[in-house]
Fold this sequence. Notes:
Chain A is of the alpha+beta class. Chain A is built from 10 helices and 11 strands. The first copy, chain A, has helices spanning 19-30, 57-74, 103-121, 140-144, 147-154, 196-206, 243-255, 272-282, 290-293, 295-300, and strands at 4-7, 10-11, 35-43, 48-55, 90-99, 125-129, 176-180, 185-191, 216-223, 228-235, 261-267. In chain A, strands 1, 2, 3, 4, 5, 6 and 7 form a 7-stranded mixed sheet that branches. Chain A has a 4-stranded antiparallel sheet with strand order 9-10-8-11. In chain A, strand 9 (216-223) and strand 10 (228-235) form a beta hairpin. The longest helix of chain A is centred in the middle third of the chain and has 19 residues, at 103-121. Chain A is globular, with a radius of gyration of 21 Å. Chain A starts with a strand and ends with a helix. The mean pLDDT of chain A is 95. The interface between A and B is large, with 45 and 45 residues.
Amino acid sequence: MVKIVECIPNFSVSREVDEKAFQALVDCAESIPGCTLLDVQTDGSHNRCVFTMVGKPEQVGEAAFQLCKCASENIDMTKHVGQHPRMGATDVIPFVPTLNMTVEEAVELSKQVAERIWKELSIPCFLYEDAASRPERVNLASVRKGQFEGMPDKLLEEDWEPDYGERKIHPTAGVTAVGARMPLVAFNVNLNTSDLKIADEIAKAIRGSSGGFKYCKAIGIMLEDRNIAQVSMNMVNYQKTPLYYAYEMIRTLASRYGVEIIGSEIVGLLPAEAMVDCAAFYLRAENFDCKKQVMEYHLINE
Amino acid sequence: MVKIVECIPNFSVSREVDEKAFQALVDCAESIPGCTLLDVQTDGSHNRCVFTMVGKPEQVGEAAFQLCKCASENIDMTKHVGQHPRMGATDVIPFVPTLNMTVEEAVELSKQVAERIWKELSIPCFLYEDAASRPERVNLASVRKGQFEGMPDKLLEEDWEPDYGERKIHPTAGVTAVGARMPLVAFNVNLNTSDLKIADEIAKAIRGSSGGFKYCKAIGIMLEDRNIAQVSMNMVNYQKTPLYYAYEMIRTLASRYGVEIIGSEIVGLLPAEAMVDCAAFYLRAENFDCKKQVMEYHLINE
Lengths: 302, 302
């Protein structure tokens, strides 16, 4: 079975501010055989762009490295201005296992790419999220704290020796964070109430941090235009905390307030398995094997 | 977007009865670039085998033709014995649109292949199911009635001129039926009752032929080993009659008898869309776009 990994590198440049450098990155991404550029987001005020690429691990790893090289040749962080926190020309490279691949394999890939970035480009790298070498490096915000301008000093602190490289930033490309994590599904559930407190209470009950589902992050928000409250979630491991766990628990908790679910939103891309598992649950399918019975997996595996 | 078609040709030979001819077909199927042989079923008492292939229309059409040629060179219908009704060395070739393809496009493909089989192999062809040229040819059993031995006379009857070819069978390869249909999902729902009559009544209520869902075929059967009744269905157009229509209607009808659904079975392959649509229904997903948001479609479309 073919393994597919997703990679979502973030670069400190935008089409709006430096079209030439931005285009060089796009051209670079499109030049790697076997790596598919699904999406490019660019934001002028952030002066930052985000690529979404998929393919086999070897090709996607190659693409991540080549993009990092291209960014180091085209972006000068000493001149970078933008609203979004950043510490490198290539700011962050997350790898996400998408098909027939474990998060451990994605961690291994992130380490290989980080090592190569240091050895061939002399850009120091931190490992983060599931690839992190110690707990305080799991959270990207902690790793990036101080940003490009603060990194020369930060790297000299006892706890902040890079995972790959010397305690000295690349003069123009800074520092890069490379990591791995499970696919994240952005899943929001809308309630037939305008009482934000109800959504807040439900969010608190279902999120892992306060005793709910381990791989669910949740907050209550108001959809002002519709005047309804929403439980807004990031499902950070849909295999271990499926979408229907959250949906059914929200339904149960809402009923206590006489409130009902009126709809949900799934934002952006998600693996078919996350939806197929829900269908199998609600249809009470016995012995359903997603990978064997869903035709599309056979098409991908060829 | 890439188009993918499935083809499930049936040949009048089995590994058990004639291993050499059977293997020639397998080798032929595996030799066509861009056509993937997913599955081969062979049955000695039927003396028949069924191939499941997928790929782009052009390659799968080529494979179907080459297999038909191979069968005509390796199978002599004047010597064929088997329990399953059959009329040709290649008995039947159905094309099923699987991805980014309409059933009309599959009909077009079936006509091209049938025409080529006649022109290059001199095997007369009937079109059937959605490709049928007249109502009495929709049903394969009607087309095949009389079988190989009766075909010489049948082709001379006023109503049974082949769609492609003369009114004369190929001396050893007989006649072939070529057609197109939507993917079929075999979907069975198990009830917590041992009363077959209840499953029969529900099946009658939900099937199109007696006034239920147009694209649902259903019968009641007993699962003797579990002593429970089952509504056994073929969902012949999951886009127009989704699986959850049937499931929810069965649940409602069963409740009238104080009976509940205890599980379901999905047999064999089905398109991801058939499951994703169910998930979107039960999760009340607003504005969910299966083809854009499910990652795997992007992998296939590259």
